[in-house]
Each structure stands twice: as structure tokens, then as C-alpha cells.
Design brief:
alpha/beta; Rossmann fold; two-stranded antiparallel ribbon; 20% strand; Methylglyoxal_synth_AS
Amino acid sequence: MSRISFTRAQLPARKRIALVAHDHCKGFLLDWCERQRDKLARHELVATGTTGLLLSKRLELPVESMISGPLGGDQQIGARIAEQRVDMLVFFWDPFEPQPHDPDIKALLRVAAVWNIPVACNESSADYLLSSSLLEQQHEYRIPDYQAYLAARG
């Protein structure tokens, strides 16, 4: 089987940011988002179910909510990444608690890596992402060339 080829795409200046947090990390994510509210307000926000509801109330910003992570919300976010409808993932996951939907979590992180989007898995890395000079400008990046992939199999 041939290796996947790559092409270039543009991350837009106004990012579509997915916000996800495990139960024990929701408070950390809510506090972080409150501190970063002004920056987040300039972008489109999407989150898994409970996290999205909590964020929209606390930040008083529009947040599109998927269903709850364990019920498929992680997979919904992953699908949007693959469709190039999410540009950045902030996922505060809990390294101390086993998660019943661990395969979904690994799949979400894998698809984010495949599609080469910025990912932050904790408060420090999220601070670095939001302080980047690239946050509010277009940015060219490498993605899998799906059309070439299909052509090679057709």
C-alpha cells in the first residue's frame, strides 16, 4: 500500500476551536476559558455536550454543543476535524482517571494529529496556543491529500 501524500491548506484567521474536558477537568477548562474569554470571543467555539452548556453560560458566548463525549460527542468533534471544520482542539483530559470511552478519546487525538491541527491537552499548552502570533491570522499547513488517496485506489 502506498504512503499517503500531502497537500497544503489554510487555517483561517478566525479559528473554529473545539473545547473538550473530562469531568474532573471541566472546572479547569471553565476557569481557563474565562481568563481567555476576550481571545475566544473572536473565534467560533464548539464543544462536547455538558462542557458546551457550561461554557456558554459562564462565558455568555455562543458555543455550539455536540452530544456528550461518552455518547459520541468526541467522535462528532473528530468528524469535524476530518472535514476541516475544526481548526484547533483544546482538550483538558484527565490523566488520573480511566475513561470508559478511552478508544474514542484516542481516536479524537489521532484524527487531530492526522489532520495536523494545533492541540492543547492542558492549561499550559492551551496558553501557548492562544498566545501564538498565528492565532488570528491565516496560516498555511500540511494535510493529507485525500483526492490523491482516492485517485491511487481508483
